[in-house]
């Protein structure tokens, strides 16, 4: 069973699928996942939003489920985790204003630990200054933020994901199978003991 401890940083009006699906999938695959939100404690909830693609010029937005947090943001330390997940939705646009969130995101890049971000999660990566020279997918409306942060925007199908070193990104929730598969490959590789060639 995988031993990786994963931190998920989320917040109010996070995208419903992009929060619920990775959280439950990673738990089902044997990983430990702590979902946190600044200003909230374990047992409290964040509101989610359902973003869908219904033929309009942009996604539609509806109220989603409440998502229960299972850890307290103020009590966790990024150093204690092996990987990071950043869902999309509305949350990244305000989470990027929190200095402690930015510090946590930077830790995972400074240490080369696996990071999975999807959709508007790129807003948080851009604000943390970790995209310079990195290939990153995101919801297409976030392309300017990726490029202004020095990243290379990956213009891929909505069902695809892209890996660049320790970073796995995707444009939106239809990419979950590819995004989560690529992330779990990184998690498994990171958990393998180092071997020295003779």
Q: What does this entry look like structurally?
A:
The chain has 198 residues and is of the alpha/beta class. The chain has six helices and eleven strands. The strands form three sheets. It has a six-stranded mixed beta sheet, with helices on both faces. It has a three-stranded mixed beta sheet with strand order 2-4-5, with helices on one face. Strands 8-9 form a two-stranded parallel sheet. Helix 3 (99-110) crosses helix 4. The mean pLDDT is 95.
Amount of beta strand: 15-25%
Radius of gyration: 16 Å
Counting DSSP E segments of at least 2 residues, the number of strands comes to 11
Large-scale geometry: globular
Q: What string, H for helix and E for strand, traces the elements in order?
A: EEHEEEEHHEHEHEEEH
Percent of residues in helices? 25-40%
Protein name: DJ-1/PfpI family protein
Organism: Rhizobium mulingense
Which terms would index this structure?
6 helices, 198 residues, 11 strands, 24% strand, alpha/beta, single chain, six-stranded mixed β-sheet, three-stranded mixed β-sheet, 30% helix
Quick synopsis:
It is built from six helices and eleven strands.
Question: How does the SSE layout of this entry go?
Answer:
Elements: E1 5-9, E2 14-15, H1 16-28, E3 32-36, E4 45-52, E5 60-68, E6 83-86, H2 91-95, H3 99-110, E7 115-118, H4 121-128, E8 135-136, H5 143-148, E9 152-153, E10 162-164, E11 167-170, H6 176-191
Parallel strand pairs: 1-3, 1-6, 2-4, 6-7, 7-11, 8-9
Antiparallel strand pairs: 4-5, 10-11
Helix pairs in contact: 3-4
């Amino acid at each position: 069973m995988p031993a990786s401890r994963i931190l998920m940083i989320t917040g109010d009006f996070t995208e419903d699928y992009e929060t619920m699906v990775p959280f439950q999938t990673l738990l089902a695959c044997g990983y430990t996942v702590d979902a946190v939100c600044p200003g909230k404690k374990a047992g409290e909830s964040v509101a989610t939003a359902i973003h869908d693609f219904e033929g309009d010029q942009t996604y539609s937005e509806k109220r989603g489920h409440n998502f229960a947090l299972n850890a307290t943001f103020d009590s966790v330390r990024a150093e204690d985790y092996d990987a990071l997940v950043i869902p999309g939705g509305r949350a990244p646009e305000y989470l990027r204003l929190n200095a402690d969130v930015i510090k946590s995101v930077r830790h995972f890049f400074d240490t080369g630990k696996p990071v999975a971000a999807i959709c508007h999660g790129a807003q948080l990566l851009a604000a943390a200054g970790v995209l310079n020279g990195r290939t990153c997918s995101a919801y297409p409306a976030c392309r300017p933020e990726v490029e202004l942060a020095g990243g290379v925007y990956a213009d891929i199908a909505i069902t695809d994901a892209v890996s660049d070193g320790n970073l796995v990104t995707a444009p939106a929730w239809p990419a979950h199978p590819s995004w989560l598969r690529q992330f779990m490959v990184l998690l498994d590789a990171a958990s393998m003991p180092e071997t020295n060639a003779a």
